[in-house]
Every structure is written in C-alpha cells, then in structure tokens.
Design goal:
The chain has 254 residues and is an alpha+beta fold. It contains eight helices and nine strands.
Length: 254
C-alpha cells in the first residue's frame, strides 16, 4: 500500500498491516521521513555519507529522499513510522540514531495498532504531538561511522570494514596509493571529522555490536575486531557507548 500513496494519510503513519516492516536490502529512498525501530536484531543502514548501526532500544531516522540500503540478520524484527515532517531541530538531510525511552517505545507500538485514518482532533491525534515532542529531545547515539568521499580513502575504509582485525596502517596505504601519509591524514580528518586512529577504533567497536547481540563471548568478539587485549576492548567500548559490552543489550524487550 505504501508505494501507491501520493501523500501520507496522517502526519504520522505506522499501521502494522499496511507497512512493509521488512528490510529492503537495495538502495532506495522514501518521499517521507522514516523512523525504524529494531525490536530485535541489529539494523545496519548504509548511505553515501556514512554507516549507521542500530541495536535494539535504538531507532534510526532516515530523512525524506535520502538514498539508503539496509542490512540485518534474518531474524530481525522491526517497526517503522513515516512522518510528514522531521521533528524539531532534526536535520532534513542527515540520518541519526537515537535512544528509545519506554514512552517512545509504547508510542511506536500504539501507532502500529491505530486505524490508518485515526482521528486527528481526538486522543489519537494528540499522541502525534507527544511523539514528535519526545523525538525532538531524544538523545542521539554515537552509532554512526562517517565515510570519506575520496576514492583512495573510500577503498581503505571498505577494506577495513570487511576485515576489522586488519592491521593495515595509513602509512602502508599511502605507499600503495603513492600519496604521502600526511596528505592522506589531513584528507581523512577533513572528510570524516575523525583522525584515522579514532575512525578505525569506532569502526571496530561498531562492528562488534552484531556479534555481541547474538550472544558471542566478549573475548571472541574483541579478538575478531582486532583487539589483542580484552581489557583494552572493554575500556574502549565503555568510553564509546557508556556501558561495558556485557550490559549493552540488557533490558531491551518491547
């Protein structure tokens, strides 16, 4: 039904029976903003500018007309809402991952069960403003990995994303591309906002989340992500996400 609409029937649209609550693994865009919440599983959203990782208890906002591709485990369950307008203070062109508090979680569930043409002047219509107000103050999560546009750096990042335990240094890549390490370093900082060292650390930590969500041992996950020391992995994880790896996925039921 969604693909046949020329406009949303309501400012927030999320009827469970008419939305494709499945993952579309090809590049696509929507004429409206999309908020997707993973009940279980870890969503991975890929855009031209970055990579967004969305564990349970978080949601990803994809603005209207932003080309994106989604991947996730086969047992992932999600619910989506489509919004005519972005919540206050949100960019009209940038994706973001936000924390979902219990109230927003219940509102997402509620909208999936409302009639498509719910009463805008009644209690259901007033919930729209409650939801938008809650989204406007939702805490943005550090679950985005910026990607450079320069082809040489893009190739390096894609290489490291597929092999997070690789020890390839920026100096080694500079030799391959016949560009000075200083030039690549400056370009990397300019295009991603991060140093190469911090980018690789964030990439490795984000790469660890799907394995942790599956219940794999923290030690095994740390090694697979390129950490030789479990303590170093735990310390870096806590600094990035505010909790140790073992606690990150607790209390996530909807």
């Amino acid at each position: 039904m969604l693909e046949h609409l020329t406009h949303l029937p309501r400012p927030v649209y999320g009827h469970l029976q008419t939305l494709p609550n499945i993952v579309l693994g090809y590049r696509h865009a929507h004429p409206w903003g999309q908020l997707s919440y993973a009940i279980n599983g870890v969503l991975q959203v890929h855009t031209d500018l970055g990579f967004y990782l969305v564990p349970p208890q978080r949601a990803v906002w994809v603005p209207a007309q932003v080309q994106h591709r989604v991947s996730c485990p086969g047992d992932t369950c999600l619910r989506s809402l489509y919004l005519q307008h972005a919540p206050a203070n949100w960019s009209s062109s940038q994706c973001r991952v936000i924390a979902i508090n219990p109230l927003v979680r219940e509102l997402i569930r509620t909208f999936s069960e409302l009639p498509v043409h719910y009463d805008l002047q009644g209690a259901d219509g007033r919930l729209v403003q409650v939801l938008l107000d809650q989204l406007a103050v939702a805490v943005e999560q550090p679950l985005m990995l910026p990607l450079p546009q320069d082809p040489r750096l893009r190739d390096l990042c894609e290489h490291l994303q597929t092999q997070p335990d690789a020890s390839t240094s920026l100096g080694e890549w500079a030799l391959r591309t016949e560009v000075s390490e200083k030039t690549l370093s400056r370009l990397f900082q300019r295009e991603t906002g991060l140093s190469f060292r911090l980018w690789r650390q964030r990439m490795r930590l984000l790469n660890a989340l799907p394995a942790l969500e599956r219940g794999e041992r923290v030690t095994d996950v740390a090694l697979a992500c390129g950490y030789d020391s479990l303590s170093a992995f735990i310390a870096a994880f806590g600094k990035q996400f505010g909790s140790p790896p073992g606690a990150f996925f607790r209390g996530r039921s909807l």
